[in-house]
Amino acid sequence: MFKQTVLDRAAIALSVLCLIHCLLLPFIIVAFPLSLANIFKGEALHGWLLLAIIPTSLAALILGCRKHKSKNIYLLCGLGISFLIGGFLFGHDLLGEAGEKIMTVIGGVIIAIGHFYNFSLCNKANCGVHS
């Protein structure tokens, strides 16, 4: 199904955006004036990314798993989302800034891998148009 393909790609892109934000923030702060860097710095951006990642991921997974029937994808992406949520809610306080970044990176990578598998399994199961 075309919707599932678009949603998988969007979820992968959002996860990568989250990774880029987390890993490149120190360079953004140095390279741009503080007023611009503050837009990217706050925890609010992590929250907004989570609000975009979670429903996009769930929609893509539901559409894909209905076709290819592999429920392990739910577990994989659920683990990734758990890392993102844990990093957002507890990472900085419990593990410091480095721990928060590590949790976010791990979560983003796991989600991207899960959506890649969802996309691949759906493509193998001939779920729909994948261009």
How would you describe this structure to a colleague?
This protein is an all-alpha fold. The chain has one domain (2-124). 89% of the residues lie in helices and 0% in strands. The chain is built from 4 helices and no strands. It has helices spanning 2-31, 34-41, 43-68, 72-124. Helix 1 crosses helix 2 (34-41), helix 1 runs antiparallel to helix 3 and helix 1 (2-31) crosses helix 4 (72-124). It is elongated. The model has no long low-confidence stretch (mean pLDDT 76).
Structural classification: mainly alpha
**Beta fraction:** under 5%
Number of individual domains: 1
Mean pLDDT: 76
Ends: how far apart?
11 Å
Uncertain runs: none
**Helix content percent band:** over 70%
Q: What is the total tally of β strands? A: 0
- Overall geometry: elongated
Rg of Cα set: 16 Å
Written as H for each helix and E for each strand, in order along the chain, the element string is HHHH
Biggest beta-sheet profile: none
Multimeric status of the protein: single chain
User: How many helices?
Assistant: 4
